[in-house]
Specification:
globular; single chain; alpha/beta; 6-stranded mixed beta sheet
C-alpha cells in the first residue's frame, strides 16, 4: 500500500486562506438582494456580518455606523438594490472599486473593498467602508454568513484536477445516492439540487461565491446530506469556494493548464492545493472526519501528500494504493475491472470508456470507502452514470461511422481522448479542434503534435478566439502538426469556421471511421472579440450528420 502522509489534527475555523495574488476576473451577474439569509432573516446589521468574519479578513472597519441594516449582497454595481452591501472586486479588465459611486447611487448602504478608503473616497466615505485584505475572500465569507453558513449543515466533498472533475463529481453523487443519501452537486456543467437541474453558465467555471453559497443554502432547504462541488483552479484562487467548509478533498490529475492565468505549473498546482489546505482550517463538523483522496499515479501525489487530514486515501492502477483497479477490460460499449478496497474486492461495470475514466471511478470509490458506503451501492452508483454531457459523448443518427463530442481542451486530455477512441474503431480517427484565444499559448503547438501523432486526419478550427486572430492561433497549432511530419492538405487542414470544420470532418468520414470533435463539449457559447455568441457543439454535429445523411431538418 502507498502510505498516506501523517494526518494532523484539524482545527476549528481560524484565519481564512491568504489573499489571492494578481488580478482576477470581474464579478458580474452576481447578487443576492432578495433580502433573506439562510435562516430566513429579512435583514442583518453590518456589525453582525463583520463579527462573523474569520480573523485576518477585515483589516479596518469604520468607527460607529455599524448598526446599518443590510438587506442584500452584491458585487455587480448594475444589480445593486437599496439596502445592499456592495463588495468591490478588482478584475483583469475592470476594477470594482471604480463602480462604487454607481453602487451608492443605486442604494448601497455600505461598501467592502481592498483599497484604502483614502484612495476610494477623496472627501470621506458617505457610507461605512470596510477595508479587507482580499475582496473576493471577504465576499466568500460574507455570502456564507448571509445564508447561515449552509456548508456547516452538509457534508461537503470537493473535486479538483485538470481533467475528469465533472465526471468524478457525477460518479461520487451517484454512489452516495445509491447508498440512500440525499445529494446536491455543483459542476461546471450544471447544479442539481433536490432533483432539479440548474444551468450554471455558458463557459466552464466554478460559480462565484454568491451563487455557490446560494446553491448550498438551497441544498439545505431540500434536506440534502451531501454537497459535491467541482472546484476549478480559478474557483479556488479567486475564493469562489471560500466558505464551503470542505470535509473531503479529491484530486484527479494535475497537468499543464491555465498557464495564461497561473503563469507557472507551480502556481497552478498551488491553486489546486488550496482545496487540501482548507481541510485543516475549515469548520469542524461533529463526528465528520476530514479526508484527502489522492491519485497515487499522478505527479501531484507527493506534493499533495504533505497536506494534513484525519484520513488519507490513495487510488491508482500502477502504484500500490488504498483503492486499486486490476484486470481492466475496455470495449466500445464500456469498461470493466476489479476494484480492490478495504471494503472488499468487487467487480465494476461501467458504460464509460477510456482508461482515464477508470481513474475517475477509482476516485469516486475512494470517496465511497471514506464514507462507509457498501459495495453494492458503489456498484449500482457507478453503473448508473451513463455519461456526462460533452464528455466522450456519442452522437448517433444512423450513420455508418462513429461521431463523438468530447471536452478535451488541454494537451493531456486530448492525448487521452485520442488514445481512447483509437480502441473504438478499425477505421481512421478524424479530429476537429482548436485552441482558445487569450489563453495558454504554449499548449497550441503541443496539441498540434499530439493530434499529428495520434489522429489520422486533423481539422484545425476556432475555439473561442476572443480578440486574437483565429488564423494565427490555427497556424501555431499547425506548427506542432508539422513538427511530427504531418503535411498540410494530406494529413491536416484548417477551416476557421467551426460549423464548416465539423461539416468537413463528417463529409470526410468513411464507413468504420471515427470523428471526434474536441474542445467545447457542453459549453453553450463561442467568444469572438469580447462577445459570447450562442453555440451548441451538439447541434452543429447533428446538423452536419443530417446533411451528410440527407435527413430533413
Amino acid at each position: 500500500m502507498v502510505q498516506p502522509s501523517p494526518c494532523g489534527a484539524i482545527c476549528w475555523a481560524g484565519e481564512a486562506p491568504q489573499s489571492n495574488r494578481g488580478a482576477v476576473e470581474s464579478c458580474v451577474n452576481s447578487t443576492y438582494s432578495e433580502g433573506k439569509d439562510g435562516d430566513g432573516n429579512e435583514a442583518m446589521k453590518l456589525s453582525e456580518l463583520l463579527a462573523a468574519m474569520p480573523r485576518g479578513v477585515v483589516q479596518s472597519r469604520p468607527a460607529g455606523q455599524l448598526d446599518v441594516e443590510i438587506t442584500g449582497l452584491a458585487c455587480d454595481s448594475r444589480r445593486v438594490q437599496p439596502g445592499d452591501l456592495f463588495v468591490a472586486v478588482p478584475g483583469v479588465d475592470v476594477d470594482g472599486h471604480s463602480f462604487i459611486p454607481a453602487a451608492l447611487q443605486r442604494g448601497a448602504v455600505a461598501v467592502v473593498g481592498q483599497r484604502p478608503a483614502s484612495e476610494v473616497f477623496a472627501h470621506g466615505s458617505p457610507v461605512p467602508y470596510i477595508a479587507v485584505a482580499d475582496s473576493r475572500q471577504a465576499l466568500g465569507w460574507l455570502a456564507a454568513m448571509w445564508h447561515g453558513y449552509p456548508a456547516r449543515k452538509l457534508r461537503v466533498i470537493g473535486v479538483t484536477g485538470s481533467e475528469g472533475k465533472t465526471t468524478t463529481v457525477r460518479l461520487i453523487a451517484s454512489i452516495l445516492q445509491a447508498a440512500g443519501h440525499r445529494i446536491g452537486w455543483v459542476s461546471t456543467v450544471s447544479a442539481v439540487i433536490g432533483g432539479e437541474e440548474v444551468d450554471t453558465g455558458l463557459h466552464t467555471t466554478t460559480p462565484d461565491a454568491l451563487e455557490m453559497q446560494g446553491y448550498l443554502a438551497h441544498m439545505v432547504d431540500a434536506a440534502a446530506e451531501y454537497a459535491v462541488i467541482e472546484a476549478t483552479s480559478h474557483g479556488l484562487a479567486q475564493h469562489r469556494v471560500t466558505g464551503c467548509e470542505f470535509d473531503v478533498a479529491v484530486v484527479t490529475t494535475i497537468t499543464h493548464e491555465h498557464m495564461d492565468y497561473h503563469k507557472t505549473y507551480e502556481e497552478y498546482r498551488a491553486a489546486k492545493a488550496r482545496l487540501f489546505a482548507s481541510l485543516s482550517d475549515s469548520y469542524r463538523k461533529p463526528g465528520v472526519a476530514k479526508v484527502s483522496i489522492l491519485n497515487a499515479d499522478d505527479t501531484s501525489y507527493d506534493f499533495l501528500e504533505q497536506y494534513t487530514a484525519e484520513r488519507c486515501l490513495s487510488y491508482g492502477i500502477e502504484r500500490p494504493s488504498d483503492v486499486v483497479a486490476q484486470e481492466i477490460h475496455a470495449s466500445a460499449f464500456g469498461t470493466s475491472f476489479t476494484a480492490l478496497t478495504s471494503r472488499g474486492t468487487f467487480e465494476v461495470m461501467t458504460p464509460l470508456i477510456g482508461a482515464y475514466n477508470v481513474y475517475n471511478i477509482l476516485a469516486a470509490i475512494a470517496v465511497g470507502v471514506s464514507q462507509g458506503t457498501d459495495v453494492a451501492a458503489m456498484q449500482r452508483g457507478i453503473a448508473a452514470v451513463k455519461g456526462v454531457t460533452g464528455r466522450m459523448e456519442r452522437i448517433d443518427m444512423g450513420q455508418d461511422f462513429t461521431a463523438i463530442i468530447d471536452f478535451a481542451h488541454t494537451p493531456n486530455s486530448l492525448e487521452k481522448a485520442l488514445l481512447a477512441v483509437r480502441d473504438l474503431t478499425h477505421g481512421r480517427v478524424i479530429v476537429v479542434f482548436g485552441c482558445a484565444g487569450l489563453r495558454d499559448r504554449a499548449k497550441r503547438p503541443w496539441m498540434g503534435e499530439i493530434a499529428g501523432r495520434l489522429a489520422d486526419y486533423t481539422i484545425l478550427t476556432a475555439e473561442d478566439p476572443r480578440t486574437e486572430d483565429v488564423n494565427e492561433i490555427i497556424e501555431e497549432i499547425a506548427e506542432g502538426c508539422r513538427r511530427v511530419g504531418r503535411r498540410e492538405g494530406r494529413h491536416f487542414h484548417s477551416v476557421p469556421d467551426r460549423t464548416e470544420a465539423i461539416q468537413a470532418a463528417i463529409n470526410l468520414a468513411r464507413p468504420g471511421d471515427l470523428v471526434i470533435v474536441a474542445g467545447k463539449g457542453h459549453e453553450q457559447s463561442m467568444c469572438y472579440g469580447t462577445t459570447e455568441h450562442p453555440w451548441s457543439e451538439h447541434e452543429a454535429l447533428r446538423t452536419a450528420l443530417r446533411r451528410r445523411l440527407g435527413i430533413a431538418s
